Amino acid sequence: MPTCEERYKQIQEMIGQQQYNEAIAALDQLVTKYNGFAPAQLDLGNLYYTAGQLDKALTHYELSVQLEPENPLYLKNLADLLYSEKKDVARALELYESILSLRPDDIQTLMIAGHLCVSLEKFEDALDHYNRVLDIEPWNDEAQQFVDRIQQKGEHVDGDMDPVTDYRRCQELVDSGQIDAALAGLETLVEKHPDFAIAYNDLGVLYYQRGDKQLCKQFYEKAVELQPENANFKKNLADFYLIENGEVENALEIYLSVLTDDPEDIDVLMVAGKICSAMGKTESAKTFYERVIDVEPWNLEASEALDKLAKSPEQ
């Protein structure tokens, strides 16, 4: 009879072969037999998340953390789902703080924790996180910008001098569906604070939703100009170039710059693969899709793309 580890390795092979239903059934048996087995709980969470079954994904991510509460990967998967899908900011922040207690130099987690503290109006805590980023990366423009804005908030009573609070109010307007008011607020904000990059990005998003592509492009480009290392801003601009303007080469150049900073960005790896495939750069496309599989062995879309490339006439 195979050991737990041997059976788990067999299940990993099922996932690699896209036998997802069989893998889920086998993982369920494994966690029942071996009293939880945290790695299998994580895999179940990932498989259910990929399938769009968020409640089941949440259950298994929770179980993985209960079993191994000091595993940063398990904590991050749970925190990311709570933040991005469930909008449970307070709980997500607790988990990100737990990650930082284990990995105090994790730049990405420090930035996320800082942003969540701002959204909860915990400005001193936010400053601690952003300043920690600057201790590690003194050149980090995004962290410096938030430090400057929060410090201005403490120095000035006048709301006109508080872009962080003004920006948060604009976000609340967007969340409540008051788009006209949000646009007006963001435009006023960038007039007063012309280097507040995230407001330009949000203006681009809102004008895109309104169908004003010219203004959208203008604001996306301004956001990237102000913060050329911000991956989200670059992805928004690259997506616009690709989808709306058909500027394939320009879009690919930006996507590749994102991958330089984060070589495991699944969304960008997939887009880069699709672009290269469309341009006839089969080997480059294959490289991107294989990288996706390295990071997410269960990624069905990447597996199917590789199968198509293998069957193409060029092969």
TrEMBL record:
<keyword id="KW-0802">TPR repeat</keyword>
<dbReference type="InterPro" id="IPR019734">
    <property type="entry name" value="TPR_rpt"/>
</dbReference>
<feature type="repeat" description="TPR">
    <location>
        <begin position="197"/>
        <end position="230"/>
    </location>
</feature>
<dbReference type="InterPro" id="IPR051685">
    <property type="entry name" value="Ycf3/AcsC/BcsC/TPR_MFPF"/>
</dbReference>
<dbReference type="Pfam" id="PF13181">
    <property type="entry name" value="TPR_8"/>
</dbReference>
<keyword id="KW-0677">Repeat</keyword>
<protein>
    <submittedName>
        <fullName>Uncharacterized protein</fullName>
    </submittedName>
</protein>
<feature type="repeat" description="TPR">
    <location>
        <begin position="38"/>
        <end position="71"/>
    </location>
</feature>
<dbReference type="Pfam" id="PF12895">
    <property type="entry name" value="ANAPC3"/>
</dbReference>
<dbReference type="InterPro" id="IPR011990">
    <property type="entry name" value="TPR-like_helical_dom_sf"/>
</dbReference>
<dbReference type="InterPro" id="IPR006597">
    <property type="entry name" value="Sel1-like"/>
</dbReference>
<dbReference type="Pfam" id="PF00515">
    <property type="entry name" value="TPR_1"/>
</dbReference>
<feature type="repeat" description="TPR">
    <location>
        <begin position="107"/>
        <end position="140"/>
    </location>
</feature>
